[in-house]
Design brief:
mainly alpha; 8 helices; 76% helix
């Protein structure tokens, strides 16, 4: 199933990009540079979806517990961080010829950079905390805090005077670009879902290895009686 999801996401992304690039005319002011929108905007949308998943899974973990919620949150956070970094990089490439600078402390750019830093911190916290329960509990709190910044990022162009244009949606742009933006939004979302699912499966394998090492350490400190083989690695199917 994961293989076919990956193939479908790749085909959708290539097809949507080709459709957007080949069917839309150059912008009157920015020319073909404007078509970077077909990656920049969908990457931002999908990053927001990832952080909503982090928020929901983190709340679920703090409320009910459970390894699955913790690993889903971590997988979505990692994918969201990558997409946010991509959004900022593409925004800088777009901004250099448009604004004349690679970076400016615009409200949208700054709040997005803060969002990225929060989730980089989230991932660092998980990497440097050994105790699984403490790691899950602390990272859930940071994940919820980071997700609360998403509405600030989204509304920043309306709340403050910024260089960044208002939110790009199929309703706010020229109809010539609307379908290309819609299709690329769906395609990038499929890619994000695929990345989350693959990362979740890897996270379960990593957790199984952790548990095997803990059991081996306990056995080494115990009375030497044999313990059962860990079959989890072969049984994990997401």
């Amino acid at each position: 199933m994961k293989k076919w999801l990956g193939v479908a996401a790749l085909i959708a992304l290539v097809g949507a990009q080709a459709f957007g690039l080949l069917t839309s005319p150059p912008d009157r002011d920015m020319g073909n540079l404007q078509k970077i929108m077909y990656v920049h905007v969908p990457a931002a949308w999908s990053a927001f979806v990832c952080f909503f998943i982090v928020f929901a899974a983190s709340v679920r973990y703090l409320w009910r517990g459970g390894e699955r919620a913790d690993l889903i949150a971590a997988s979505a956070a990692e994918t969201g961080a990558v997409l946010t970094a991509l959004t900022l990089a593409l925004g800088s490439i777009w901004g250099r010829p448009t604004w004349g600078v690679w970076w400016t402390w615009d409200a949208r750019l700054t709040s997005t950079a803060v969002l990225l830093l929060i989730y980089v911190g989230y991932l660092a916290l998980r990497a440097f905390t050994d105790d699984p329960e403490r790691r899950a509990r602390w990272s859930a709190a940071v994940g919820i805090l980071g997700a609360l910044n998403v509405p600030v990022v989204y509304m920043s162009v309306k709340w403050w005077r910024t260089l960044h244009q208002l939110q790009s949606t199929p309703r706010t742009i020229d109809p010539a670009y609307a379908w290309g933006l819609r299709l690329n939004g769906i395609a990038v979302l499929l890619v994000a879902v695929y990345f989350i699912s693959v990362r979740y499966r890897i996270a379960r394998l990593e957790r199984a290895v952790e548990q095997a090492e803990e059991r081996a350490a306990l056995q080494a400190e115990g009375d030497g009686e044999p313990i059962e083989e860990l079959d989890t690695l072969e049984e994990i199917h997401v």
